[in-house]
Write a structure and sequence with these properties.
Elements (H helix, E strand, L loop, with lengths): L15 E2 L7 E2 L5 E2 L3 E3 L6 E4 L8 H11 L3 E4 L17 E4 L3 E7 L6 E8 L1 H16 L3 E7 L56 H18 L5 E6 L7 H15 L8 E4 L10 H6 L5 E3 L20 E2 L3 H4 L6 H9 L5 E3 L1 H4 L10 H17 L8 E2 L13 E4 L3 E6 L5 E5 L2 E3 L1 E6 L4 E4 L3 E3 L2 E5 L7 E6 L15
Parallel strand pairs: 4-15, 6-10, 10-11, 11-12, 12-13, 13-14
Antiparallel strand pairs: 1-2, 2-3, 5-7, 8-9, 16-17, 17-18, 18-25, 19-24, 20-23, 21-22, 21-25
Helix pairs in contact: 3-4, 7-9
């Protein structure tokens, strides 16, 4: 048995949709790119008890991502500045820096000066740019989150008092800015109006300010190759048209600039409406989507095979909140999708979780393992086996280029059957996804048809089969740790 040696390359992007296999990205060299990785809540905006809150150790986070062989991270924004006493965290819990700049006038609900919404915070712009550059220098792509709609109000259950949740300390609350902006025009104690189009219940002045902010972010980051744009995190379904307008504006504005970047639309969350979310995503103008688990497709337990209609990036944040396991990672990957993990390790002390949970450590490792294997097959020519349909693998989890390469997963103990064309297969390799170790079994000559393969260990197993003529793109299993 051998262990994995990781290899990182810089990001030569900008990423585009791969022209031959639109399930994947292309970095401009023609190579199909698979993305996966952990993301944390506070990598762009510091949070915690204190004013200012403790600074996130970004260098340590990047080193940790590299150790895990992750190549994607979500860059989180927060729009509110403080949580109140009755929230899930203490009243001293603060977020900074956020996208808008303070004025010289006191009196905001958080105890600081009010905001001038015509001024984008240079501290925030500098922070995001610096960290995106650092990610790129380490071969990591970033989904730059532009908005945080969960700060606009409460999406589920009975309405709380406004001082109990995020809207109370949001810059677009009328008490917190000097610009006369009142983001709660129906006076229900929530600011969902700022996530609507002006002709759909929103506010023209707010939308204009948001477009100005988006364009400033684009101007700040347009020259970087390793970014994609995320519209916002888990808004309500009523924001769909607003999000589409932001998507269209990004594409129009960047069309006049040197570089164009893909746009990512993630799952919305709305009590009683979640069954409609995934259809809205697939019908979007976005290039990348992250579905939920309450709509079409069981992205928790049996992820659908990607058709290539969109690049699909299932995020545990929208499936569990925090959840998933090794099996979920491999199933998601082998169905042509890009799994990412909402990771509590660096940013979740308010959840009262222990610093390390063995289940999630294995999940993190599994994402790195799938990235390593993605570089050993020709992704541009590989297609996923669809759930419940005839295909080359008896388990239904297989990414294959017929007659060239097969990467299959057995989620239980036991053998699996692969239907192989006649040929010489130079590599037959078993990988233990829980232990992170591989067993190489040489090569076979096969007359064609179904062949049973029995793993040399108990439990879930991954099988890699390479044809004699298949290119060996990258081999992470050549010794080391």
């Amino acid at each position: 048995m051998v262990s994995i040696v990781w290899s990182f390359a810089g990001a030569p992007g900008p990423l585009t949709v791969h022209p031959e296999n639109p399930r994947y990205f292309s970095d401009g060299t023609g190579k199909a790119v698979y993305l996966t990785g952990s993301h944390v809540w506070n990598n762009f905006v510091d949070w915690g008890v204190g004013d200012p809150p403790p600074e996130f150790d970004h260098e340590a986070f990047i080193a940790w991502l590299k150790e895990k062989n992750h190549n994607f991270v979500r860059g989180w924004v927060w729009e509110n500045t403080r949580f109140k006493e009755t929230s899930q965290v203490t009243s001293d819990w603060r977020n900074a820096p956020i996208p808008w700049a303070r004025s010289d006038q006191p009196g905001a609900h958080d105890g600081g000066n009010k905001f001038d919404l015509t001024e984008i915070s240079q501290d925030y712009l500098d922070r995001v740019r610096e960290r995106c550059i650092a990610y790129g220098e380490n071969g990591i792509y970033v989904g730059v989150m532009l908005f945080q709609p969960i700060n606009y109000g409460k999406k589920r259950g009975a309405r709380l008092r406004e001082e109990e949740y995020d809207w109370w300390c949001h810059p677009f609350h009328e008490a917190n800015n000097i610009n006369g902006i009142h983001g709660d025009t129906d006076n229900d104690g929530q600011g969902w109006e700022i996530g609507l189009l002006p002709d759909g219940g929103g506010i023209q002045e707010v939308f204009d300010l948001q477009i100005r902010y988006v364009e400033k972010m684009i101007d700040t980051l347009n020259d970087l190759d390793n970014i994609v744009w995320e519209i916002g995190n888990e808004s309500r379904l009523i924001s769909n048209d607003w999000q589409e307008a932001i998507i269209d504006r990004i594409k129009t504005y960047e069309s006049t600039l040197p570089k164009q970047h893909l746009v990512w639309k993630t799952a919305m969350d709305d009590k009683g409406q979640n069954q409609y979310v995934n259809s809205k995503l697939f019908n979007s103008n976005a290039d990348i989507i992250s579905p939920n688990h309450r709509s079409v497709g069981d992205y928790r337990n049996d992820p659908p095979a990607s058709s290539g209609a969109k690049i699909v990036m299932p995020d545990t944040d929208h499936l569990w909140g925090i959840g998933g396991d090794v099996s979920w990672v491999w199933k998601t990957f082998l169905r042509g999708n890009h799994p990412i993990f909402m990771d509590p390790h660096f940013g979740g002390p308010w959840l009262n979780l222990p610093p390390d949970i063995p289940k999630y450590e294995k999940l993190r490792n599994a994402m790195g393992h799938t990235l390593a294997y993605s570089e050993r097959i020709d992704l541009a020519s590989s297609v996923p086996q669809e759930s419940g349909t005839a295909g080359p693998c008896s388990t239904g989890y297989c990414l294959f280029d017929r007659g060239q390469s097969y990467l299959a997963y057995q989620p239980e103990s036991g053998s699996l059957i692969i239907d192989l064309p006649t040929g010489e297969y130079r590599t037959v390799e078993w990988f233990d996804p829980n232990a992170g170790t591989a067993v190489q079994k040489g090569q076979i000559n096969w007359e064609g048809g179904e062949r049973t393969f029995v793993p040399p260990f108990d439990g879930p197993a991954v099988l890699l089969i390479h044809a004699h003529s298949s290119p060996r793109l990258h081999d992470p299993f050549d010794g080391g740790r």
